[in-house]
Amino acid sequence: MPVVRVVHWREAEAVQLLDTCRKAGFDVEYIPGDGSAIVRGIRAVPPDAIVIDLSYRPSHSREVAVYLRKTKATRPIPIVFVGGEASKVARTRELLPDAAYCEVDTVAAIVRKLTKSAPKRDPVIPLGMMERSRGKSAAEKLGIANGGTVAVIEPPRDFPELLGVVPESVEFQGDDAPITLWFVHDRENLLASLRQMRTTAGRSKLWLLWRKGASGDALTQNVLRETTRQVGLVDYKICAVDSRWSAMLFARAKA
């Protein structure tokens, strides 16, 4: 009986996928949590196949798969992606061309086929997130394009140098823009701004930027993720702006 680990970011919506795998006779494992918890579980007890939903938080799903392929112990495990928008599937195929892609109604047959065949000796090892963004300017990473308007909230003094070269005709302002760069300097600052951040995320792409190892109560991506979740914000992209600042892109969680 194949042991299958299902990765889905919404437990309530994972029911159909889980039921399909169980009805096929698989020993299904599902552990809710963030990407780190999922990866630790898979590394601790490697399954025969990994089934990953692409319909919600596809970038998170993609990065979990990339990490598993880059790790020697989990590299040979077959990966099957289920569902997802065409553009998200295409983006994932670029990174993981030898993974399987299907819909829920065909996932059982594909998993059964993959777990019966010998594992690939040389699966494609994709570039990690930081490697893929190497060579891009800070503005490119943050989606700042020529002629765009960007809101900047509580920037550091060296903000102009931080972004480096920006596209022509970009306008920076205090609020109400398609892209918002919100600099978070400490936990107190984060907690005081949460409600306004939620409002901003309803009308703008909200990037939260924090300085790496800034203080004794240093902000980290996990601190930002857990704290913003209190007001219904979820992250779906992360990047290194430069050697000092990191950024995470947030949106309102779907009801």
Would you kindly provide a brief summary of this structure?
With 255 residues, the chain is an alpha/beta fold.
Care to describe what's here?
The protein folds into two domains: 3-128, Rossmann fold (3-Layer(aba) Sandwich); 135-252, Rossmann fold, CATH 3.40.50.150. Helix content is 35%, strand content 22%. It is built from ten helices and eleven strands. It has helices at 15-23, 35-44, 58-70, 86-95, 107-116, 129-133, 138-141, 159-163, 187-201, 221-228, and strands spanning 3-7, 27-29, 49-53, 79-82, 100-102, 149-153, 171-173, 179-184, 205-211, 233-240, 245-252. The strands form two sheets. A six-stranded mixed beta sheet has the order 7-6-8-9-11-10. Strands 2-1-3-4-5 form a five-stranded parallel beta sheet, with helices on both faces. α2 (35-44) runs parallel beside α3. The two termini are 36 Å apart.
- Whole-number radius of gyration? 20 Å
Question: How confident overall, as mean pLDDT?
Answer: 88
Q: Extract low-pLDDT stretches.
A: none
Annotation, overall tally of beta strands: 11
Major sheet attributes: 6 strands, mixed
Tell me what portion of residues adopts beta-strand conformation: 15-25%
Helix run count: 10
How far is the N terminus from the C terminus? Answer: 36 Å
Category by helix and strand content: alpha/beta
Query: What order do the helices and strands follow?
Result: EHEHEHEHEHHHEHEEHEHEE
Q: Which term fits the overall shape?
A: elongated
Helix content: 25-40%
CATH topology of the largest domain: Rossmann fold
For the biggest β-sheet, the strand order reads: 7-6-8-9-11-10
Q: What do we call the CATH homologous superfamily of the largest domain?
A: Response regulator
The assigned CATH architecture of the largest domain is: 3-Layer(aba) Sandwich
